[in-house]
Automatic annotation (TrEMBL):
One of its GO terms (molecular function) is methyltransferase activity. Protein-lysine methyltransferase that selectively trimethylates citrate synthase (CS) in mitochondria. Seems to conduct trimethylation in a highly distributive manner rather than in a processive manner, and thus introduces a single methyl group per binding event. CDD domains: AdoMet_MTases. Residues 74-190 form the Methyltransferase domain. This is Citrate synthase-lysine N-methyltransferase CSKMT, mitochondrial. Its main location: mitochondrion. GO terms for cellular component: mitochondrion. It catalyses: L-lysyl-[citrate synthase] + S-adenosyl-L-methionine = N(6)-methyl-L-lysyl-[citrate synthase] + S-adenosyl-L-homocysteine + H(+); N(6),N(6)-dimethyl-L-lysyl-[citrate synthase] + S-adenosyl-L-methionine = N(6),N(6),N(6)-trimethyl-L-lysyl-[citrate synthase] + S-adenosyl-L-homocysteine + H(+); N(6)-methyl-L-lysyl-[citrate synthase] + S-adenosyl-L-methionine = N(6),N(6)-dimethyl-L-lysyl-[citrate synthase] + S-adenosyl-L-homocysteine + H(+).
Amino acid sequence: MSGRRIAAAWIRHHSVTTDLIENMDKKATWDRFYAENRNRTTTFKNFEWFFGFDAIRDFIMPSLQTKSHGDALLHVLDMGCGTSAIGPCIYRHSHLPVRVTCADISPIAVRQMLEHIQANTIQPHNASSQLEFVELDCTELQTHYVCRSVDLIVDKGTTDALLRSKEGKGKAGLVLKQCLKVLRSSGSLLQFSDEDPDARLVWLETEAQEAGVMSSDVSVQEVGELRGMTYYCYQVTPRPIV
Ligand SMILES: C[S@@+](CC[C@H](N)C(=O)[O-])C[C@H]1O[C@@H](n2cnc3c(N)ncnc32)[C@H](O)[C@@H]1O
């Protein structure tokens, strides 16, 4: 390739990357991302932001165990699922009966996941478990869930995407408040992120307060290092003010 062609390709790649980073709160950005990703290969492959299920199963599955309430289905949400295999893996491996909802703002991602699951049926460990894929803007979680009905919300990279985009910070705060409204008092939100605790803990503690209405407990654990980056699991538990 000539020097000019390489430069043109680099500029094009650079502008696509900048566009993605600045607009990660926009549906159109992700529709394009998942459509282009799918076109790159002949067969569908789950795309994982940061890492896959095996890296975080020891955070997710024990947390789920603590939320059991008899034979009732535990409601689990993979918020901003994209084409990640996290939701299907929880459905497959959970001994407890679960209803796993994989929700994303991008209908392209949701359609790809649906088509993949329809073509490759998964046998859940618990025969009562359910798996669904929905197109949903998570700033409006209450259009899908009634208050205090969800046991576990997994957020791998979704809040990061909102916080890092040019106009997404307000949406990240809205999403967090919606999570706290739909979570049961025994429920938790697990955010997997590369953001440093100095910044994320302050943001979570500030945004999760609603004067006189809501408070929450926030904690952090290190997940590990990958390609020189340290990743964290932030746990947020609602504490309704009575
Ligand atoms: C960084 S990706 C992470 C995807 C997936 N969780 C993973 O681990 O691979 C962020 C995801 O959030 C989704 N998203 C962005 N804004 C959203 C919103 N308001 N409601 C629901 N999903 C959203 C995007 O479509 C994208 O799939």
